[in-house]
Specification:
β2 and β3 form a beta hairpin. Helices cover 42% and strands 13% of the residues. It has 14 helices and twelve strands. The structure holds flavin mononucleotide.
Length: 362
């Protein structure tokens, strides 16, 4: 029987995937407190539905940094989709297009920038890591521009890699037939990845190549080399939201990297209100982390998110049933959101505001 919710895809994908690859997808940092908090945070928020509103048609369409999408649910950048299905990120891009929404492709994809763009039937953004050698990042930016990506998403929560103990235990590395497709095989970048260090190969890549000295200057630099809008991913405080705006961010993505970086950091949904308050309408605010239901989306929108992004659920869809699975995950979330809007008496996104939610005391 076809899965009836996103969590059922999780179980299916786990049963089909290689255990070490599965661990890479599921893992969080250290005790995985923040991984759990991302989901639990939504349970501490209750909805205040209004009755006797005409909900014959509920409209989920919106725009994200000016790009129209059919729903406020986008695909978060995650690495290594080929671990889940053969076509990897190309399958994900087609699923996003079929659902009429947007995909953010990762720097660490297993299909390259150009191949993903060729497969895509919908809009794309490109997620960027800043390498110690800025020419590496600049060349990724040029390729994303040339391939028609519409915005850059600068990830700022990864100066070093969080301690993901499952990957350390598994000495996790990509299988030999896969690589970080955005880097050519002669590059040192790929060599580091395959070095067989006896510990997580991704941790070795990040330690060797990512810029640990990165400051807000990097955002100014990025803006100076491109005309694409730049969103900042990984903000969890009002203070950093203010700095992101001062350095020209076109959007802020409230995220803790799916609990994979600083364990014990705020759940994304806990951080959202203070970021929205600090931003005060000066740019769009997005959220990822722990979205598993349409009602989670509704709560994030009520607290001021323009749209949400989903990470692991897409990987579960891909792992269970490739492109069709990823597309079905998006359709399940869309249907749940649409129903939740109806039952909450908010048939239009513009009517979803803070009056819809009540926070339970801790
Ligand atoms: C397997 C995996 C790989 C990820 N790779 C990246 C990445 O390459 N770049 C990035 O900015 N975020 C990455 N993330 C973080 C996601 O963009 C997103 O913040 C997170 O998955 C959202 O939480 P969720 O999985 O609960 O939806 C990754 C997350 C996972 C689970």
């Amino acid at each position: 029987m076809e899965p009836v919710n996103v969590r059922e895809y999780e179980a299916l994908a786990q049963a089909r995937m290689d255990p070490a690859a599965w661990d890479y997808y599921r893992s969080g940092a250290e005790d995985e407190v923040t991984v759990r908090a991302n989901c639990d945070g939504f349970a501490r928020i209750r909805l205040r539905p209004r009755m006797l509103v005409d909900v014959t048609s509920c409209d989920t369409r919106t725009t994200v940094v000016g790009t129209p999408v059919s729903m406020p649910i986008l695909i978060a950048p995650t690495a290594y989709h080929c671990l889940a299905c053969e076509d990897g990120e190309c399958a994900t891009a087609r699923a996003a297009g079929a659902a009429d929404t947007l995909m953010v492709a990762s720097t660490l994809a297993t299909r390259n920038i150009e191949a993903i763009a060729a497969a895509a039937t919908g809009p794309l953004w490109f997620q960027l890591y800043v390498y110690r050698d800025r020419a590496v990042s600049e060349s990724l930016v040029r390729r994303a521009e040339a391939a028609g990506y519409r915005a850059l998403v600068l990830t700022v929560d990864t100066p070093r890699l969080g301690r993901r103990e499952r990957d350390i235990r598994n000495a996790f590395s990509l299988p030999p037939h896969l690589g970080m497709a955005n880097f050519t095989s002669e590059d040192d970048l790929t060599m580091v990845h395959f070095q067989g260090t006896g510990k997580s190969a991704l941790a070795a890549h990040v330690a060797a190549l990512f810029d640990t000295s990165l400051t807000w200057e990097a955002l100014s630099w990025l803006r100076s080399i491109t005309t694409l809008p730049v969103l900042v991913k990984g903000v969890l405080t009002g203070e950093d939201a203010e700095l992101a705006i001062q350095h020209g961010a076109a959007g802020i993505l409230v995220s803790n990297h799916g609990g994979r970086q600083l364990d014990g950091a705020l759940a994304s949904i806990e951080a959202l209100p203070e970021v929205v308050e600090a931003v005060n309408g000066r740019c769009e605010v997005y959220l990822d982390g722990g979205i598993r239901r349409g009602t989670d989306v509704l709560k994030a929108l009520a607290l001021g998110a323009r749209a949400v992004l989903v990470g692991r659920p897409i990987l579960w869809g891909l792992g269970a049933n490739g492109e069709a699975g990823a597309r079905h995950v998006l359709e399940l979330l869309r249907a749940e959101l649409e129903l939740a809007m109806a039952l909450a008496g908010r048939p239009r996104l513009a009517e979803i505001d803070r009056s819809l939610v009540k926070m339970l005391p801790n």
